[in-house]
Amino acid sequence: MTAARIAVISAGLSQPSSTRLLADRLAAGTVSALAATGRVAEIDVVELRDHAGDLANNLVTGFPSAGLRAVLDRVVAADGMITVTPIFNASYSGLFKTFFDVLEPDSLTGMPVLIGATGGSARHSLALEHAVRPMFTYLRSVVVPTSVYAATEDWASAGDGLNGRIARAAEEFTEVLAGRSTARPADPYRDAVPFEQLLGGLRSA
Predict the structure, then answer these.
(1) What CATH class has 4-204?
(2) Which residues contact 112 (CB under 8 A, 6 or more apart)?
(3) In the chain, what percentage of residues exceed pLDDT 90?
(4) Is 146 within 8 Å of 169 (Cβ atoms)?
(5) pTM, two decimal places
């Protein structure tokens, strides 16, 4: 069984961080949702704080370091992506935006994306809809309908509001992943004729 490769992008700055905690919860929800459909997930977590210097240098020079290049390649090769950013000044963080600024144009076209964010107050939750979702729409990614915002009070709440949103978003993400997998074009080189055989045909002619 082929695993669904999920890139998890966390833009948390502290360690530990609520941003990483939400990213892990969304990844766990996705693993469970995929398992319910008989599929397995391969989770690849990227902590952007570990690449902050390389990202800044990439902006200035236009070229990624070898380490950052490897991270970018892994992300764009994934089957889907979970992204979580802290909300600063009613928008995504600069570190979060920088990561997507250095990706090659069109590299996320058609990519299923589950978006999440964290903040100190629930009043910042709409930043997901007026800032994060439009960015991925511009990048022509496929963003699932349910976004997940976790305010400080959500972590202390005994209710299942956050858990419910995570489960719903993970199920939607799984459905989009399934659609992408069935729509993925066949490998054009799978049944390619060896070059030596082509040459042999020319010589016999």
Answers:
(1) alpha beta
(2) 79, 80, 81, 141, 142, 144, 173, 176, 177, 180
(3) 74
(4) yes
(5) 0.85
* Residue the block writes with tokens 């993400």: 173
Strands 91-92 and 112-119: unpaired
Tokens of 188: 């054009």
**Tens of pLDDT, residues 141-176:** 999 999 999 998 888 765 568 999 999 999 999 999
Strands 112-119 vs 142-143: parallel, antiparallel or unpaired: parallel
Which residue ranges make up each domain of the chain? 4-204
Give a three-class secondary structure readout of 116-145. Answer: EEEECCHHHCCHHHHHHHHHHHHCCCEECC
Dihedral sign, Cα of residue 17, residue 21, residue 26, residue 31: positive
Which two three-digit tokens encode residue 50?
């570990």
* Residue whose C-alpha is closest to residue 47's, from 6, 90, 95: 95
